[in-house]
C-alpha cells in the first residue's frame, strides 16, 4: 500500500458514491468548514453557507453563484478598497446615517454604470474596434481626467469612486469583452460572476463566465468528483501553510499558523504552536548561518552600505522567492478548492513550479490563471494581428505585448490607490522598476520558447536535472529583485543588489 501525503480521494469508488448521498454531502460541508477554519480563512462560515447551497441543490448552481457573489460584495466590502472609498466619500460631508449607506449606494450605481459601459463597448466591433481596447482607452482617459482636469472636488471624487470600483471589476469584464463574438450567458449574470465569492483577487479565478460554463459539472457524479478534488486541494493548502510556518520559523525565527505563531527560539529550541501559551520543548537548535534577514530590510541595508555580504543577500532573496511561491500556491489552492466544491472542476493555479523544464514552463506552472489572462487578452490578439511578420518576430512581439504591456497594465489598474494619491504620470513612473522586470521576464520567456522550439527536447540528463532547474529558478530569483512597489526604490539600488550577489560592488 502506497502512503501519500494528499491521497487521490476522488478515485475511490466508495467515496465517490458516498459523496452523492445526502449524508455524504453534509460531511463534505462540515469538512470544508473545518479546513477553512484551520486555514484561517477570512469568512469561513458565510463561505461554507454559500457552498452548502451549491452542494445540496446543484440544479440551481448558476443562481447560487449570482446570489453568493452579490452577497459577498455587500458584506465583504473591504474587497473594493474600503479605505480609498471612505476617503472619497468624506469630501461630500455626509451625515452619520448617509455615511453608513453611501458605500452601498455608490457600489450599486457603479455596477449599473459598468453594465451600461459594457453594453456600449459591445457595439465597437461595428467600427473594427475591439471592445477590450475601447475599455482600456476609456479607463485611461477617465484616470487622466480625474488626475489633471480642473474639476470641482465632488465631481473628482465621483470619478475616482467609479474608477475604484471599475478597477476591481476590470479584468473580469475584460474576459467578457474579449468574448464579444461568442455565445455568453446574460450580461447581468456575467457581471455577477465578477469578483466571485470564492476569491477577492483581481485575477479572475478561474477566468470568467464563459469558462465556468465549460467546466461546470453536468451530473451528480461529475459534481462529486469536483467536490472531492476541492476537499483534497484545501487539505493540500493546509500542508503548505504548515510547511510555510515551519520554513519561516526555521529561517526567520517566527511563522504564522492557525491564527497564532510558530517561533523557534534559537538558544532554547522552543517551538510555539498557535497561542504563545501553548509551548512544546523540542530541543531544536538552528545554526546561526541559516538565519535569514527579511529581504526588504536586507535590500535597504545594501542600498546605503558597501553591501559586501553575498551569502546574506543570497539567503534573503532565496527565502523571499520560496515564500512567494508558497503564498501563491496557498492562495490559489484555497480559491480553486472552493471553486471545485461549488461544482466547477477548474484546473489548479500552481502545479509544482520547481519541476519546470524552462522559463516559459515555470511561468505556466507558477500562476496559471494570471498567465491565462495575459495569453488570452493580449498574447493571442497580438499574435493573430501580426500575420505579416516572420514567425519568430510574430512570437516575439506578441510576448512583449502580453508580458510587458499587459502585465504592466494589470498592476497599474490594481494599484489605483497610487494613481489617486500621485496622479497617472507619477504612478506610471513609480512602476518603472516593475516595467524593467516585465522586459526581463518577456525576453526570458521568448528565448525559452525559441530555444525549445529549435531543440525539440534534445537535452542531456545533466541539462534536464541540474542545469535547467538552476537556470530557471535563478532567473526568477534575480528578476524578482525588480518587483518592488515601494515608492522611492531606484533601478540603481536594485542593480547594486544584484551585483552584490556575485561579489561585485
Beta-strand share of residues: under 5%
- Domain count: the total is 3
Count helical runs.
21
Structural class: mainly alpha
Strand/helix succession = HHHHHHHHHHHEEEEHHHHHHHHHH
How far apart, in Å, are the first and last alpha carbons? 56 Å
Summary tags:
505 residues, mainly alpha, 3 domains, 21 helices, 3% strand, globular
Characterization of the model:
With 505 residues, the protein is mainly alpha-helical. It folds into 3 domains: 9-198, no CATH class; 238-251 and 289-501, no CATH class; 253-288, no CATH class. Helix content is 66%, strand content 3%. It has 21 helices and 4 strands. Strands 1-2-3-4 form a 4-stranded antiparallel beta sheet, with helices on one face. α16 runs antiparallel to α19 (432-455). The longest helix is centred in the middle third of the chain and has 32 residues, at 220-251. The chain is globular. The model is unreliable at 264-283 (pLDDT under 50).
